[in-house]
Each structure stands twice: as C-alpha cells, then as structure tokens.
Amino acid sequence: MPTERIQLPDKEIMIVGTAHVSKSSVDEAHDAIQEFRPDEIAIELCPNRFEVMRNPKGWQETDIVKIIREKKALLLFANLLMSSFQRRIGEKLGVKPGDEMRIAIEEADASGVPLALVDRPVQVTLQRAWKSLGAWEKTRFLFSSLYSILSMEEIGQDEIERLKEKDMLTHAMDEIAKQAPTIKRVLIDERDAYMARKIVDLEGKRVLAVVGAGHMKGLIEQIRNPVKDINALEEIPEKGSGLLGWVFPMAVLTLVITGFFFGSPQQGYEMIKWWIFCSAACSGIGALLALAHPLTVLVAAVSAPITTLNPALAAGWFAGLSEAYIKKPRVSDFETIHDDIANVRGWWTNPITRILLVVMLVNLGASMGAFIAMSILTRIVLNG
Description:
Order of helices and strands: EEHEHHHHEHHHHHEHHHHHHHHHH
Shape: elongated
Radius of gyration: 24 Å
Number of helices: 20
Strand order of the largest sheet: 1-2-5-3-4
Largest sheet: 5 strands, mixed
Low-confidence stretches: none
Distance between the termini: 68 Å
Number of domains: 2
Structural class: alpha/beta
Number of strands: 5
C-alpha cells in the first residue's frame, strides 16, 4: 500500500493510498494509523457517503418522485451503477467496499481523534460532471452505462488483478473518462484539489489521510501547491442563457416552416407526421425496453414530440413520474436494492432501478428519435 509523508511549515501529513479491493488495505490502514499516531484523521468521504456508510438503511427514506422532479434521476443512476460495480468486485475478492474507510472511522472513534470528511459532496461532483458534457457525450455515456449493466455478469480474473493495484472508484472514473474525456477534470482533478485544500486547512499537526491509491499522485501535488479557494469547486454551474439548447429545436422548426412555405402544405404536414412518429416511437421503445407499465409507455410516446422541442423538459421525467405513481416503490425495495443491482435481472425487477431505467431509456430513445427525424426532415426539404 503506497504511503507518502509531506512536511508543511505547520504540520506533517501522511497520505495512505488504499486499494479498495485489496484485503491487505484494511490491515495496512490500521497499521499506518497505529504507527503514525495522528491527532486528526481525514478520509475520502463526503458527509452523504459517510452517512450511508453509518446508516445503510437510510435508503428507506429516499423519495424517488422527488428525485425525478429535481432532475436528479441520472445522478442516482450513476451512483447505483458505481455501487454495483464496487459490490461485484468486492464479492469476487471477499472484501466489503469501503472497509479501509470503516477502519479509519473506528480508529478515530476508539482513540478520540477528530475525523475529517474531506471529499466533495458526491451530488456536486456528479452534477458538475453531467453539466460539463455536451449532447453527444451524454448520449455516449448513457449507451456506455446501459452496456455496463448488460455486461456486468462477466468480470475476468485479469481485470480483478488489475483492480487490486489501484483505487476501484478511480478505475470506474477512468472508464467513464474514456467515454467522456471532458469530465476527467471534474471527477478526478477537481476532487484532488478539493481534498488537498481541506486537508491543508485541518487544525491537526499530524494528519493522516486515507484515500484511494488512484488519488495519490494528484493529491500530493495539490497539497504541496494547494488552491487558494475551493468555493468555485462547490458551485453547480448555471445553464446560462439557454440559447444553445434552443439551437436544435429552432433548426427543426425552421425546416418545417421551410417545408410549408417553400414546398407545400402537404410537405409540411408530412414533416410534422415524421417528427411525431420518430420521437414517439423511439421514446416508446425505450419505455418498453425498461419493461414499463403500458400507461408509462403511452406517456413516453405522447410527451416525446413536445419535450424534444423544449430543452427545459425531458420525456424521461414524465415517464419516470408515471412509473413511480403507478408502481410506487415499497420500503422492502429500498432494503434489497444493493443486492438487486448486483445482477442484470435485478435492475429490471427492482421497482426503484426500473424507474431509473425508464427515465434513462426514454430520454435516450427520445434523443435518438429526434436525430432520426431531423435527418428525414432535412432529406424531405432537400428533395422537395
């Protein structure tokens, strides 16, 4: 397990890099704490993740309808996807993800040493990452996520051996970064800078920080040259004027108007029919793939032609709310969610994850339908 000691003018910091899938990391984290005898312990957790670790049954209080209304369904989906990945690898190696963090927490409690949660809130990180993506990168990410679920049964021994050598969370981030390189800055670099500043600002004179091994290099560099202010790293970027989001809808409307005035009314009506058909059909297919209720399929199909022309709306939100009201999740569904997402079938049988799949697949279908319709409309105008 890699360790690094950094001497600053007012304190000494020991960075302990853990491999979340390594059994030895738990013992090594314990030994490092006993040897260094810190007067403050920092761990790579944010308050929300810490609370989940302390109170696993906190899931029972989740309001899925509120999550959809606040447009956080995809954030919860990404969280669960990462949790599923960690759990499956942990089961392969006989390790419970986060055990080395639990050891640090227990040591702090037992010795009365202050415990510092230095990671940025996961909701902030995921929202900043999502808003950093363009439309094409978001589509690629959704496809990649779906593929990850469908292929989750196969984890080769070679992959497991590689995971033993690095931070599992960072590995998951690396995979995401391959599909959407622009979010590496948000998922990895920004968090390194954030945690470094928090660690440097701690009151302890001997600080031991337990982090994933994948963060070691960036964290050490940032501690030696910390950013002055992390407030900017905690902000959720505004959507701005929203003008860019209206480019696609305006292009569609321009094509339809062109068909009416420079072609014929019949051509214009044909273009409208194609728009409705493509967006409704693809959105409905997305709902069907999520095994949604028939009424939810209808909601997806009806809402898609309208929502795809309004960047502030999404067919998946309406379909997800429909599914949540029709098949309201029970407390037992929240209790079994972590077991259910460990296999492909569980994502579709658990009502909570099925609702999230409805949101994701309907949105994906609506986007595909819109692009297909756009190509058809363009061809009609050019051949008009």
